[in-house]
Design brief:
With 141 residues, the chain is mostly helical. It has five helices and no strands.
């Protein structure tokens, strides 16, 4: 079961990482619904090249960490980092699913924008799914 969870998490993180790399080099597909906006459709943030690449490398790192945690690849890490450090990943994604109560997450107030609709249907459930899988992987491995 750890192998399956590790692979699923890796594929998700690899896909999300690839999308952020794509945006980082100037890709436009999916960009209009990827950032929170105010009700007047003005973007709440406008990340640049560096931010896209930081997120892309971070997501790729999370995927590799999931492979290590599920023992699909071997890499010598201190046990404290492997156990406690890994829990940071599901914590981040469960937190993202819950949100900041205004633009992002299940409990957001702004619900009528393109981003908000996509967040409710896809982004927040995916984050919760990642968080739950991460918690399960942390417990069983």
């Amino acid at each position: 079961m750890t192998i399956s969870i590790g692979l699923v998490l890796f594929v998700i993180f690899l896909s999300l990482s690839g999308l952020h790399f794509y945006w980082g080099v100037g890709g436009k597909w999916g960009m209009e619904a990827s950032l929170p906006t105010q009700e007047n459709h003005e973007k709440v943030m406008n990340p640049g090249l560096v931010a896209c690449f930081v997120v892309a490398f971070g997501l790729l790192g999370f995927g590799i960490f999931a492979l290590i945690k599920s023992q699909l690849i071997s890499f010598a890490l201190p046990s404290w980092l492997l156990n406690y450090g890994f829990m940071l990943i599901p914590t981040i994604f469960v937190g993202r699913a819950v949100g900041e109560f205004h633009y992002v997450g299940f409990f957001k107030k702004i619900k009528n924008t393109k981003f908000a609709q996509m967040d409710t249907k896809y982004y927040s459930p995916l984050c919760l799914f990642i968080g739950i899988l991460g918690i399960i992987l942390a417990i069983i491995s």
